Amino acid sequence: MTVQMEWAEKYRPKTLSDIVGHKKVIDDLKKWGEQWVHGAPELKAVLLHGQAGIGKTSSAYAFANDMGWEVIELNASDQRTAGVIEKVAGSASRMQTLTGSSAKRLIVLDEADNIHGNSDRGGARAIVDIVKKTSQPILLIANDLYGISSSLRSLCLELKFGSVQSRSMVPALKDIARQEGLMCGIGVIEKISESADGDFRSAVNDLQAVAMGRTEIDIEDISTSERDTKESIFKVVGRIFKGKDISSALEATYNLDETPEDLIHWVDENLPYQYTGKGEEALTPDIVQVYSYLSRSDRFLGRVRRRQNYRMWRYAGMLMTGGTVVSKSRSRGGFVKYQSPSLWRKMGQMRSKRNMRNNIAVKVGTHCHESMRYSRLEVAGLYSKLLETDVYSVEVVATLGLDMDELLYLLGAKKVTKKIQALYDEAQELRKHVLPSDEPVFFVERNAPKKDPSQLSLDKLPVSNNDVPVLEESSFPKKEPLKKPQKTLFDF
Ligand SMILES: Nc1ncnc2c1ncn2[C@@H]1O[C@H](COP(=O)(O)OP(=O)(O)OP(=O)(O)O)[C@@H](O)[C@H]1O
């Protein structure tokens, strides 16, 4: 899991001249600032509104910086009760600055359209009172203009931020690529800008995502990631974690080509990384709370499975996305590369291990006339012990017809060493030259006379997994008294 600084944060504009687009609103904002220098303007608050990721917050801070003003911010919407607003913004709005100069304090209220609900009770009214009496400039930021009361709006200079045009994004993105030492092929930046839908933060995030682990990107890299279905799940997971309200987090899942059954695993896997950057072991109170929502969501998923009533997916989806949003005490900065649920990987690995173990048991069982279960539990271990000896290892591999993966499994080895490869090759040679075509083989011997290759047949022993029928326990031959003396393991 790589956590590196988010480029959108790294390249956040410091001054208004770095803001991409929005020329008209930036000019209006500057004029409003000028009015504060010569006294208080008629409208003491300004309201920056528009869709997410287009530069409202950046403009607010860049503006304060250009004006040489301090910033007092009141951001966490869950703390904005009337009392807190009055204490922080109210006192700031009445005080002179420490220097007593004409420099002002800019009181910034982000998410001004989100001041309602229980803990914010009275918050909206307190803001109206403060704006009426303030001696300091106040700047409100909102996505949804209609989430703000008309009484507050009437006290504000409304500045609408439109979406950022893709052609304005191009030079800014190129600049970021240059600073990151990233070579971009023809049309790459243009394509990223166009697909961002006016959201500059998304464009920067997309550029960073495509550039991960590369120093050069081409147009195919973008098309590949577009075609990759995981790309969309990564984006949705990001929107759930970074969502500011329940509905936007839920809406992010609507176009997703994954079921809530799968989505819950994605949220579960990436939650600790997103909140703390530390992965599984980190448990903070907000993570604990999200997990309690996930468990409630999982209960609905269980009901859907049992009753086949898919309408309940809605509740499961709401609990896993909305629960994540409401439990979040703070957003963590930094770029998080989301990963697919490790549970699936583990299950896949377990399944293939189980299949391999069963195939080996079939080969061992066929050789020593035992059931698969008995071979797996009691006999396969003996064969792996034999493999460790130099004396019979080649014969065991040849007799059982082990393929390389099975050999590694029985040896408990992780990779093919020279010694293992030599053992395997020797066993293949032995099989080729020794296996008879018409009589049952109990054991392939190294010093056995070579057979005529034209008469060779591997009918009697399984050679590869494909040759081994996947047998049910019941299909194994029952142990029968042997008609003629037979070589056993002890003959090895
Ligand atoms: N117009 C822009 N000019 C330069 N950078 C921008 C612009 N818009 C967005 N960005 C980049 O995107 C990041 C996020 O921008 P910002 O926080 O200002 O958006 P916002 O409109 O306030 O979004 P939100 O409503 O989600 O808070 C910035 O750090 C910056 O890197």
TrEMBL record:
<comment type="function">
    <text>Part of the RFC clamp loader complex which loads the PCNA sliding clamp onto DNA.</text>
</comment>
<dbReference type="GO" id="GO:0005524">
    <property type="term" value="F:ATP binding"/>
</dbReference>
<dbReference type="InterPro" id="IPR003593">
    <property type="entry name" value="AAA+_ATPase"/>
</dbReference>
<dbReference type="GO" id="GO:0016887">
    <property type="term" value="F:ATP hydrolysis activity"/>
</dbReference>
<dbReference type="Pfam" id="PF00004">
    <property type="entry name" value="AAA"/>
</dbReference>
<keyword id="KW-0235">DNA replication</keyword>
<keyword id="KW-0067">ATP-binding</keyword>
<dbReference type="InterPro" id="IPR003959">
    <property type="entry name" value="ATPase_AAA_core"/>
</dbReference>
<feature type="region of interest" description="Disordered">
    <location>
        <begin position="472"/>
        <end position="492"/>
    </location>
</feature>
<keyword id="KW-0547">Nucleotide-binding</keyword>
<dbReference type="InterPro" id="IPR023935">
    <property type="entry name" value="Rep_factor-C_lsu"/>
</dbReference>
<protein>
    <recommendedName>
        <fullName>Replication factor C large subunit</fullName>
    </recommendedName>
</protein>
<dbReference type="GO" id="GO:0003689">
    <property type="term" value="F:DNA clamp loader activity"/>
</dbReference>
<dbReference type="InterPro" id="IPR047854">
    <property type="entry name" value="RFC_lid"/>
</dbReference>
<feature type="binding site">
    <location>
        <begin position="50"/>
        <end position="57"/>
    </location>
    <ligand>
        <name>ATP</name>
    </ligand>
</feature>
<feature type="domain" description="AAA+ ATPase">
    <location>
        <begin position="42"/>
        <end position="167"/>
    </location>
</feature>
<comment type="subunit">
    <text>Heteromultimer composed of small subunits (RfcS) and large subunits (RfcL).</text>
</comment>
<dbReference type="GO" id="GO:0006260">
    <property type="term" value="P:DNA replication"/>
</dbReference>
<comment type="similarity">
    <text>Belongs to the activator 1 small subunits family. RfcL subfamily.</text>
</comment>
<dbReference type="InterPro" id="IPR027417">
    <property type="entry name" value="P-loop_NTPase"/>
</dbReference>
